[in-house]
Amino acid sequence: MSNNKELKAAIVADIKSKFDRAKTVVLVDYRGLNVAEVTELRNQMRQAGVEYCVLKNTMINLAITDMGIDEVKAHLEGPTAVAFGYEDMIAPAKILTEFAKKNKNMTVKCGVSDGAYIDVAGVEALAALPSREV
After folding, report:
1. CB-based burial of residue 64 (10 Å sphere; 0-12 exposed, 13-18 middle, 19+ buried)?
2. Residues 122, 113 contacting (CB under 8 angstroms)
3. Is 89 helix (H, G, I), strand (E, B) or coil?
4. Which of 6, 36, 61, 112 could make an SS bond with 25 (beta carbons 3.0 to 4.6 A apart)?
5. Which 3-state string (H, E, C) describes 2-13?
6. From CA 40, how far away is CA 103, in angstroms rounded?
7. pLDDT band at 16 (very low <50, low <70, confident <90, very high)
8. What is the pLDDT at residue 84?
9. What is the pLDDT of residue 115?
10. Other Cβ atoms within 10 Å of 69 Cβ, number
């Protein structure tokens, strides 16, 4: 029993460190995507240097409890995939927003940018920003 609790504590600590390190985090509902679509999305994320993973809502909830972004908790229903952008602030929002436009089964739930909650409109606005090179 103790091992299970320690394992969950380690997972929560890992998620919390990812939220701390990431410049931008975007949460999406990936329900309805087939394997080919998910593979395509993961490849796009990998090429952009974005970490994309499916996480349990309870673990995300525990990780963000002390971070002051309680607005995210309202979006922790159904399957949740999270994209962590460590270097490029715009990449997770841009990739997921464009992918959601092409694949109606996926929806953007919300995001976190520089430790602050952003809603779907905020994620779309972030995605509309030009890249650093421009």
Report:
1. buried
2. yes
3. coil
4. 112
5. HHHHHHHHHHHH
6. 11
7. very high
8. 96
9. 86
10. 17
> Is the confidence at residue 133, as pLDDT, over 60?
no
Is there a contact between 24 and 92 (Cβ–Cβ < 8 Å)?
yes
DSSP H or E run through 19: helix 2-21
- Residues 70-114: tens digit of each pLDDT: 899 999 999 999 999 999 889 999 999 999 999 888 999 999 998
Average pLDDT of the residues of the chain:
90
CA 114/CA 101 separation, integer angstroms: 25
Helices (H), 22-106: 35-48, 57-64, 91-102
Instruction: Please give the structure tokens belonging to residue 19.
Output: 């939220």
3-state secondary structure of 17: helix
Q: In what order do the strands lie in the sheet with 107-113?
A: 50-55, 80-85, 24-29, 107-113, 116-118
What's the pTM?
A: 0.90
Burial class (CB in 10 A: 0-12, 13-18, 19+), 88: middle
